[in-house]
Write a structure and sequence with these properties.
single chain, Chemotaxis protein chec, globular
């Protein structure tokens, strides 16, 4: 993960609740981009307020230790239903941390070929 950081990140990450039952980890640079998008949303829209409230309200900023580790807050572990084992997935601009069993449960029956066919043509 550190190789994706820019020097300005100073090994700082933001952990927050994901849209699925998982934890999102953002580099500080990526988190600031997300914050800018949030600033562009209308707070007059109750759904937008709730989105901002849940994502920002559950955000925790940390610095990675010398081994590149971070302590995940208990509230986020509870949200993601993580008890012991974890699955770490690199996404495009963030990392997801999952309970492996929950990940399998949510993705069971997902038709990868059908979904890919909607966006990819050969």
């Amino acid at each position: 993960m550190r190789s994706a950081f820019v020097p300005e990140d100073n090994d700082s990450v933001v952990l927050t609740q994901g849209f699925d039952p998982c934890i999102y980890i953002y580099s500080m640079t990526e988190w600031k981009k997300l914050e800018e998008k949030f600033r562009g949303l209308s707070v007059m829209d109750s759904d937008m307020r709730k989105l901002i409230r849940i994502i920002s309200g559950n955000a925790h900023e940390y610095e990675l230790d010398k081994q590149g580790r971070v302590v995940i807050p208990q509230t986020l572990l509870h949200f993601a239903q993580i008890e012991k084992d974890i699955l770490i997935i690199g996404m495009l601009n963030w990392i997801e941390v999952w309970n492996p069993k929950k990940y399998q449960e949510i993705h069971a029956g997902f038709d990868l070929q059908n979904a890919a066919g909607k966006i990819v043509s050969f």
